[in-house]
Amino acid sequence: MDIDDILAEVDVHAVPRQTQDLQEFTRAWVTERNAPEILPWPDALMQRILERIRRQIELVEEQTGNTDPKANFRLIIFQTELERFKFLVRSFLRARVAKIDAHALHHLTDPSTKARLSPSELQYATTHTTLLHAHYRSSFLSQFPASLQRMDDTAGGMSMVEGPDVDRAVFVRALKDVEEPVYVEGTDMAFEMRKGDVVVMRWSAVREVVIAGDAELI
Amino acid sequence: MYGDHALKLIQHAKRTQALAHLPHYQTELVRETTREVRDLDKDVSNILAPFQGSFNPSSEPATACSVLVNHLCMRRNKRCLLAYHRVRSDKLEEMCWSGKDVLDQEQQAGRQGNGEGSGMASEVGNQSSLSPEEDEYVRQYGDMLAAYKGQWTDIDLTGSLEPPRDLFIDVRVLRDAGEIQTEYGYACHSLTILCQEWNY
Amino acid sequence: MGSYYDIDAILTDAQKVPCTFDLDMPGLGYLDENAGGDIKAGTRVSLPLWLSTLLAVQRLGPSSQPLCTLDLPASISPRVLAALKAGPKTVDLRQLTSHYYELAARVLELFEEEEIVDVLSETFKERAAEIADHAHNPRGALGEAQDFLRGLDEMERQLFRSAHDSSNAMREWMGETKKKR
């Protein structure tokens, strides 16, 4: 029995929005860190979290200078919570940047992957790729014959543009009973996921279930 | 044999991956590998020139094989050069993220190597382990990173990736620093913690 | 086949395998350390994987033969395989070649050699267990274990490193939870 189980038992509607958001974001953070590919940008959730951080910073700034010892203690609690929130967001963003950097061209050329980036991530990826290519060009590539200057060749059975390894193994826990059995592509394996089940599975097989929110990575 | 220079570059790259710092850019090997590509390309043109565009591989298997080998060598060199530069640029980017001023450090290293009395930036650049192109790349990447970071001012994107444990950190004061202004005003309540270290 | 930018994949591709040219190849003598000369049909040359595997599958016409034929490299010769079968942990793989398993995997894609595949998988399994044992037990890195660890191929080294790091991280974490209590 851990905190997730306890939280899951509480009626969702009885939990205040803020707690729900934190729980949801923590889950998104863990999933993003463990999934081999980048996940859809949680726009609305992110807006709410950032708005809350901004308000909290304002509050802390207002309260600083208050000499009442009680207020002072409260301030320390606020700041501690604030630091934890900031850490979560930072770590989440950095995990995404690391994935974008590792396969920048893939993120820019594959339409479904591209759609998962936030506008500022898309801009980062575009600029980074442009800079990197310019760097290659000025270092050596411009002296190559024209036919060899491409960055997206697939000659010789090997593509220069690679995506992440979506068949990497991940640990998954079902948050509810998954109605449809999960099929493992390329094999004749299928299995059912009941609430609370923990399985080790290749990411590609459980991706849909996780993105739908029926399961989480651990 | 073709590809030998490229292989040396890759062996350098392999060692670089295990190092904390960035070793010297292999200007000569990069130049040799690039030249090899141009030579191979010329070779291909020379081999194919007599056929005037009507080359039929199955009737001239030996010629076709030469052309193929040349092509494969060029592609191999390209892959090695890209991978070598990628390993280095990855390392440079990592330095940018961790907040090290790469160019400044390089200049300092260069100055030490140059001895005193030399102030010219170009001379310093010669001593650097970065190529001039890498220098430029770091500058541009740094600018871009600053722009991306700027969209997340509340978060401090390049901050620590260790989960926070304590709100305050211990500071050992080595030199009188006068009044200290912190993120949220004066360091009033953290002074107790500062004081614990004050005795050293 | 490994990723385009992956240094280990590129090093794997640099490993050489013997191949035999099936035709006279004028001007290709430099492949056989005979620059400017020719290669006669039937000549055996050692060529890196990035060159040999592609030449071996290349056919110039619908009915013609491939340009050259590959042979199994010495590192998976019957002699080595017999040694691996007899004692998987006593063979110094690194001395044979730095990227042993990956070389074998690349070559065996082009051959029908189920038995070799079986021997190598069995070898990897036995050695992996031994590697994990050493990684979790730091004292194991001394004495005779040193010989074994020195003979690991690149993939095994990485396995050792990550097993070692994870056991350290685990110990650190356990220590921290204890401290809190």
UniProtKB/TrEMBL annotation, chain A:
Annotated ranges, domain DNA replication complex GINS protein SLD5 C-terminal: 164-218
Main location: nucleus
Alphabetic keyword roster: DNA replication, Nucleus
Compartment(s): Nucleus
Alphabetized SUPFAM superfamilies for the sequence: GINS helical bundle-like, PriA/YqbF domain
Recorded GO CC terms: GINS complex
Pfam families given in the database record: Sld5 (PF05916), SLD5_C (PF16922)
Keyword Transit peptide assigned: no
Boundaries of every GINS subunit domain copy: 56-139
InterPro entries: GINS_A (IPR021151), GINS_bundle-like_dom_sf (IPR036224), GINS_Sld5 (IPR008591), SLD5_C (IPR031633), Sld5_GINS_A (IPR038749)
Gene Ontology terms: biological process: DNA-templated DNA replication; double-strand break repair via break-induced replication
This protein's record includes keyword tRNA-binding: no
Assigned protein family: Belongs to the GINS4/SLD5 family.
Functional note: The GINS complex plays an essential role in the initiation of DNA replication.
Protein name: DNA replication complex GINS protein SLD5
Organism the protein comes from: Alectoria fallacina
Classification of source organism: Eukaryota, Fungi, Dikarya, Ascomycota, Pezizomycotina
TrEMBL record, chain B:
Protein location: Nucleus
Any GO BP: DNA strand elongation involved in mitotic DNA replication
Region described as Disordered: 107-133
SUPFAM superfamilies: GINS helical bundle-like (SSF158573)
Keywords of this entry: DNA replication, Nucleus
Domain GINS subunit stretches: 48-152
Matches recorded under Pfam families: Sld5
Keyword Cytoplasm: no
Oligomeric and partner information: Component of the GINS complex.
Name of the protein described by the UniProt record: DNA replication complex GINS protein PSF1
Underlying gene: PSF1
TrEMBL record, chain C:
GO biological process terms held by the UniProt record: mitotic DNA replication initiation
InterPro entries reported in the protein's UniProt record: GINS_A, GINS_bundle-like_dom_sf, GINS_Psf3, GINS_Psf3_sf, PSF3_N
Family under the similarity heading: Belongs to the GINS3/PSF3 family.
Complex formation: Component of the GINS complex.
Sequence ranges assigned to domain DNA replication complex GINS protein PSF3 N-terminal in this UniProt record: 5-57
Keywords noted in UniProt: DNA replication, Nucleus
Cited SUPFAM superfamilies: GINS helical bundle-like (SSF158573), PriA/YqbF domain (SSF160059)
Compartments reported by the entry: Nucleus
Protein name: DNA replication complex GINS protein PSF3
Domain of life of the source: Eukaryota
The UniProt record lists the keyword Nucleotide-binding: no
Described purpose of this protein according to its UniProt entry: The GINS complex plays an essential role in the initiation of DNA replication.
Tagged with keyword Nucleus: yes
Main location: nucleus
UniProt GO cellular component terms: GINS complex
Species whose genome carries this gene: Alectoria fallacina
Domain GINS subunit stretches: 76-175
